[in-house]
User: Fold this.
Amino acid sequence: MLLVYCPYCGVSRPETEFSCRGEAHIARPADPSQTSDEDWVNFLYMRSNSKGVYVERWRHIHGCGRFFNAVRNTVSDEFLKFYKTGEPMPDLEELAKEAGK
Amino acid sequence: MKRYSFLELAKNAFSAHQNWGRQWRSPEPKTEYDVVIVGAGGHGLATAYYLAKEHGVRNVAVIEKGWLGGGNTGRNTTIVRSNYLWEESAALYNHAIGLWQGLSQELNYNVMYSARGVMMLAHTVHDVQVAQRHIHANRLAGVQNEWLTPEKAKEYCPPLNISKNIRYPVMGAALQRVGGTARHDAVAWGYARGADDLGVDIIQNCAVTGIRRGQDGAVEGVETSKGFIKAKKIGVVAAGHTSTVMDMAGVRMPLESFPLQALVSEPVKPAFPCVVMSNTIHAYISQSDKGELVIGAGTDQFISYSQTGGIHISNHTIDAICELFPHFRRMRMLRNWGGIVDVTPDRSPILSKTPVAGLYVNCGWGTGGFKATPGSGHVFAHTIAKDEPNPINAPFTIDRFRTGRLIDEAAAAAVAH
Assistant:
């Protein structure tokens, strides 16, 4: 069971209050009619599935109900950062280096 | 290879079973192979075995980061069944059932395939409709599956609680009698011994660190912790680490890797005659021949390579088991563990050529790959040897995610399986 921090509520709560919604920063193609099959495949199905530092979306379903993003190490399951939706993706290499210290 | 037989057993008894000899070699890698298989789990070893046995491709190496059969092959709940909804899946899993039935004889190794029946419970009106739809589809596809009333289900599995006052009462069950269990380790060992005897090199404790591609884009070989190994063809069968390995060749995969948990109880006398699964309240249970209850839990909701899972996931399954089988309430659990399973968007596997010439992939078995081990190895060996799929695995391409011809067992079962 993970301890997850909601950046909107400002509290850490057990994982069961949250729902994990997969990889973050995957934007829906802006112009669907002009989007190639390859780009649809990448948007719908292809995931980085990284072993190591990974960015994912969480939703505080039993709290404020809002989506936010988290950076997590998928080997240790340790969270490195939580941030609100709309904020830019942090520098993952930098975060990994800091966590390694 | 020394054939195992009753006579051999008797002869070895005279030397106190000290002279059986090793079941397979531990060779150093050669500099070049026709085919390199990445991953010595059940599927990888089966692939190597059938390559050598059925296609005469014997210059084969199986390269394994850890020890053979040490990943999900040794970490699953050993359930064998083929009652999937879609014809493509039914054909694939039924192909495996056919091979399971003669596997011990084929390998001269007791894989302890036990067709004790797999019963899938229905707890809601929706479950009943879905189960009956599965049964009708299976019958049309030539897959054995039948409907049981709650009373018949209890007759088949006496410990089952069919009282009406539990949270999710049993409203019936689908029973596949040819389903059952097999001894997971023996499957890996049997294939390893058979493949080794046919000349396949099984190289353990050797991690693949890169896949080298030539000017034309085709594979040239694998970089490993024991140096570069040249290979004309490479088959990746790395379960939860498939996307990590494929990334080395620059191929992105439609996969996500989750920890899946299982647990076993202390061993008790035979008390449980079959396999019972409930997708709705999420419980999978059978009893091993050693006497342990073998229980399958779910996956975590987030991707992870940690080989552990959240305690609330296994607790949830235990809750369901205790309600369905109240007389197990005081059983103690001996151990639990997690394996990393690679899940595709449609919950069907990928057994396919790839955009890279000479690179093949067998992955995406999700939470239920063990049952398919012989069939998967059999058709994947065909795909590698002939450079084209067997008709059975032809629909299971990577390209189906582009064309839209998904084999949507996810929607069919409404759960991972």
